[in-house]
Design brief:
Distance between the termini: 36 Å
Largest sheet: 2 strands, parallel
Structural class: mainly alpha
Number of helices: 2
Oligomer: single chain
């Protein structure tokens, strides 16, 4: 069984550019099993950093955002058939 690893939260702004920086830091420092973002905009930035680094979501790490903004449906790899796109803004391949 895998042991739980606790990390201090990464603290920044509520913007996609902060999520991008946070994603780069997580790639460099080692990926957790999952990341819970404070909002969807941060999650979009995080997903971009992960995509550029070749990190598979949800294969390598799970990512969750919060607030269901339309931009959340516009992630890299949206046509990969991954579950999780719900609501009226969901994109279908």
């Amino acid at each position: 069984m895998r042991r739980a690893c606790q990390r201090e939260p990464l603290v920044g702004s509520w913007e996609a550019r902060w999520g991008y920086v946070a994603g780069q830091n997580l790639v460099e420092d080692g990926l957790p099993d999952a990341v819970m973002c404070a909002n969807d905009e941060v999650a979009v930035g995080l997903l971009r950093a992960f995509a550029e680094a070749g990190v598979s979501v949800p294969g390598d790490v799970s990512v969750a955002g919060f607030d269901d903004v339309p931009m959340a449906a516009m992630r890299a790899g949206a046509d990969d058939g991954a579950p999780g796109f719900r609501g009226p803004w969901a994109l279908r391949a």
